[in-house]
Write a structure and sequence with these properties.
Elements: H1 2-22, H2 25-31, H3 41-47, E1 59-63, H4 68-77, E2 84-89, H5 95-106, E3 110-115, H6 117-124, H7 129-135, E4 140-144, E5 154-157, E6 161-165, H8 171-175, E7 179-185, H9 187-201, E8 207-208
Parallel strand pairs: 2-3, 3-4
Antiparallel strand pairs: 1-7, 2-5, 4-8, 5-6, 6-7
Helix pairs in contact: 3-9, 4-5, 5-7
Length: 210
């Protein structure tokens, strides 16, 4: 009798599960379960951006073995007209990359650049090339973080691709120092950065340069 009762219970459980599947209840429950791919974009950008794993493909480079400047230049040059570029760059003194960004702006790309205050002020007292190159470009906007706490990111995105790594946009950072940079296509990763970028861009005490 004990075995018969056990079989009856197992049969009842199986029947209930089949009914759930047949009526779509199980799928409904799974649909309501939060997952990496089902999170809303703002939640993704603020909660799990640090956990995003770069996908297969893209370009990963290490200087000085590779010329990261060339990788960045070619990636920016391929940005489609009427797209956008959001750039957060701690150091930016590289003339070749300044030309690449200005050329993109001339093609119609809307460029926003966010900088660290201390680094920006130090650069402004030395080499004016980057500032002069951008000054006449109406498609380029620049804001500077008004704080002694560093804005230490070295990233850019066009909404589809994300560039990240340790290399600043300086000739030494891109070609001579031990640094890394990766450019890859991933909308989730790009959106996570752009959510962060928008938060920084909207700070009420930012210094608006251009």
């Amino acid at each position: 009798m004990r075995y018969i009762a056990r079989y009856l219970v197992l049969g009842f459980i199986a029947t209930v599960l089949m009914s759930f599947i047949r009526h779509g209840f199980l799928n409904h429950i799974l649909d309501q379960t939060p997952s990496f791919t089902s999170m809303h974009m703002p939640e993704l950008g603020k909660a799990v951006s640090a956990a995003i794993v770069p996908p297969q493909g893209g370009t990963l480079a290490y200087s000085p073995d590779s010329n990261i400047e060339r990788m960045d230049e070619q990636a920016i040059a391929s940005t489609q007209a009427h797209a956008h570029l959001d750039i957060a760059m701690y150091a930016f003194t590289d003339h070749i990359l300044a030309d690449a960004v200005a050329d993109a702006a001339e093609r119609g790309v809307k460029v926003r650049i966010y900088r660290d205050q201390q680094q920006y002020e130090q650069e402004s007292g030395r080499d004016q090339y980057v500032a002069r190159r951008f000054a006449a470009e109406p498609n380029i906007s620049i804001r500077v973080k008004h704080s002694s706490d560093l804005m230490h990111l070295k990233e850019w995105s066009d909404g589809i691709r994300l560039r990240e790594g340790s290399a600043n946009w300086s000739p030494s950072g891109e070609k001579r120092q031990d640094n890394s940079a990766a450019v890859f296509t991933n909308k989730l990763a790009a959106q996570a950065f752009e959510n962060k970028f928008q938060d920084m861009w909207d700070r009420p005490n930012n210094i608006q340069v251009q």
